[in-house]
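User: I've been going back and forth on whether these two constructs are worth ordering. Before I decide, could you fold them both?

Assistant: Sure. I'll take them in the order you sent them. The first construct and its structure tokens:
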Amino acid sequence: MDIFKILAIALITCVATLIVKQVKPDFASLVTLAGGIIILLMLIDYINQIFQVLNYIVEKTNLSPGLFGIVLKIIGIGYLTEFTANICSDSDSTSLANKVLLAGKIIILVMALPILTNIIDIIIDILP
């Protein structure tokens, strides 16, 4: 099971970060980032499976591919924002992490506006 490999890499990365932090504190963030990237690379097959299922759903439900693309972008922005904010927090840059989270939330809101307007249009069409 891949989860055990991922957990092992995470634990090894944590230990390596603690060791590197004592010797070269500047490189501790890089060790954490490298471990995170390795874990993300291990998830590529799972992410591909998710996209295949979501594509199947779009085909079967006749959802607009444009709106569905927006939803996928919003999900991606959410994950990337959280990942980046956690790296900033691990680097003792909490204020920067908070600004990254705020920026992500604002961008997500702006990207969601076409979906909201589409829902409002549907509601208006339904009302007499």
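The second construct, handled the same way:
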Amino acid sequence: MTISVQDLLRHQAWADALFFRAWEAAGAQEDEDLRQRVDHILSVQEVFRKLIQGEKPELNQGPPPIFADLKARCMASHQALEALAVGLGEAELARTLRVPFFPEPPCVIPVQDALLQACMHSQHHRGQCMTRLVALGASARNVDYLIWLWKGQPKPRWDAS
């Protein structure tokens, strides 16, 4: 069975857009827990993208940005990841990189697994964010991969309308 990293990244963008619409509809844009967790999600996506591109990654420090900035950053992150993934051939996907957060023993993984980790990490925390929305009285959205497939692999829709 083969699932492309590009498909997982497209699903992730769709799921994040659905989450942001649910977050906005809930009127919980100021929720500190959601803002911190989304900031973390985006920081990790950016770290893996930078590692793949051979850049030095840095984690975001300080208070989490406001909702509008997080949403804009998320959209930009997905555009950058999609553009990166489109240009990756088999050899590049197999190229290894070292994840600096796990120094001993060194964590060395293929680029394909780095992209998979970025998707899986985001999925994990997105679920936590949906649970937080429910705790705040909102309705969670089902962002399962299967739902995305069933709906014909729609593109992300970031606007609230």
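Notes on the second construct follow. The chain has a mean pLDDT of 92. The chain has six helices and two strands.
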